[in-house]
Amino acid sequence: MKGLVLLFPGIRYTVDMPLLYYPGWYYRQQGYEVVPVSYGSQFDQVEFHNQDITAEIEAAKQYCFPQLQSVDYASYETVIFVSKSLGTVVAGWAQQALHIACQQIYLTPIHQTLPYLDRGCMVIAGNEDKVLDPAILRAYCQAHAIEYHGFPGGHRIEVKQDISTNLKTIDAIIALLKK
């Protein structure tokens, strides 16, 4: 097996939504095993409007920890974590907690993700994100020599009523994965 990709969803942003679905599809085509991480059905009804989600982050970590522990990461040549929003915190924490050598691709990280961002990761965010101010994120990435890519749109990196721009954004994100 060439490699493993774990997909870490966000709150109300499943692995079937564009920012996780298309990277998963791309990596499957490259021969990677792609595994969605689950936080349980309790996340199906959670809302996220910039409120404190510390409890949700902890619940997600506890729920998925046995899943993450059961993987034999050493049996793969390459391990990649692709995460979205709340999932960026869980992915960063998992890498540290389990001492996993992996590439991190953080899609629209939230404030609690910042301590996990390091030089080897890639950050992709919306230029109008209301969850984590893009100026703060860009400055943090620049100060820590982290690869940063900003795209039109908010926290979902989508521009409402503009399918053409959204498709171009997905295409550009997939191109970044090919590097």
UniProtKB/TrEMBL annotation:
It comes from the Bacteria. SUPFAM superfamilies: alpha/beta-Hydrolases (SSF53474). InterPro entries: AB_hydrolase_fold. This is Alpha/beta hydrolase. It comes from Absicoccus intestinalis.
